[in-house]
Amino acid sequence: MSTERRPSSDVAILLGGGVREALMAQSVLRACEGATVFASADAIGTVLGIPSVGRTSVFDDSPGELLRVFRRLRAGAVGTVVVPYPARYLHLALAYFAAVPRRLVAAGAHDWVATERARTTKDLHPTEANWRLAAVASRRPMLAPGDSPSLRPPEAVRVQAMARWPAFIGSGHHPLILIPGGGGWSSERRAPSWPAERFAVVANQSTAERIVILSGAGDQQAVRETRASIAKPTLTLKLADMTADEVAVFSELSLGVVGHDGDALYVAAATGALVLATARKPDIPPIGDRVVTLWADDFERFPARRVLEALSKQARIDTYA
Q1: What is the pLDDT at residue 317?
Q2: For the chain, what percent of residues have pLDDT higher than 70?
Q3: Residue 294's beta-bridge partner residues?
Q4: What's the whole-number mean pLDDT along residues 16-34?
């Protein structure tokens, strides 16, 4: 599927991954005016709201789709291809063998395919690496850190969501949102997770009167175990039945969002919501003005008290801000 929204340039962006990766790469999309963006079905919704994007085309990593994209790149209309960080080798090779004249990537493994590279360091957040890549793509020097990813749901979506779930958002209701699993639209979390009962403790001891649990791909057991121990009115929502904009509405109207590195947590951070990321290496939690990352060496030994203290501290800051 391909759409055109404004006059396009000769720049193509190969966006791998899902919603999380699309938000990480937002600075690159904003820097490439009129670019054609190839993105997954999950990610395309976050791309459509960016005014600088020219065309969008949904693709996946199946052989037929990769061949279609290869032919588009090979046809000669594309003079520059940008592969945001973290780049998949498959997409880097696609740009290289399509012989696109200018190929931009962040420095790292397999960057031999590039004609131009953005400098990175080992401990650089992917969003920060893409700030640097955006500067290279736009041929402008990077004089200051870029903006954090942002996501503002259309007013029509906000009104519809508040009408659909009036007991949990709107009319003074500010739920606490929990993401006890990976919180991905399609991708499942393979890293260890914070125990479900600790999420329930946070829900029960927080000041929130209502709880919303977001369930992503493969999260059913974690969500079920979390829900069973919560004594407050609780709404469980499947990400598969929601758009990123709907998740954004819940997030921006919430008391806070507690969860793991994943699509839904990145959406929450992009709205400016208070995000408490429970993380363990090699997790990559989002960055943002109201993101608090709580690092744990061992999730089994990480107490709910740490999250409750962070939630209470931020509530006091918001009260007197």
Answers
A1: 67
A2: 95
A3: 278
A4: 95
User: pLDDT tens across 309-321, in order?
Assistant: 999 988 776 655 5
Question: What was the pLDDT predicted at 2?
Answer: 56
Show the tokens assigned to 318. Answer: 């918001």
| Gap between the Cα atoms of 73 and 53, Å rounded | 17
Task: Put the strands of the sheet holding 176-179 in their side by side order.
Answer: 234-238, 211-215, 176-179, 256-259, 275-279, 291-295
Shortest CA distance to 251 belongs to which of 235, 234, 269, 238?
269
Between β-strands 234-238 and 211-215, what pairing exists: parallel, antiparallel or unpaired?
A: parallel
pTM: 0.93
* 89 alpha-carbon distance from chain centroid: 21
Predicted local confidence at residue 123, as pLDDT: 86
Question: Which residues lie across from 275 on neighbouring strands?
Answer: 257, 291
CA-wise closest residue to 183 among 252, 129, 110, 237: 237
For residue 264, which of 40, 42, 14 has the smallest C-alpha distance?
42
Calpha distance 199→219 (Å, rounded): 14
294 SS3 class: strand
Q: Of all helices (H) and strands (E), which one includes residue 17?
A: none
DSSP string, 176-232: EEEE-S---SSPPP-S----HHHHHHHHHHSS-S-EEEEE-TT-HHHHHHHHHT--S
Distance CA 28, CA 47 (A): 11
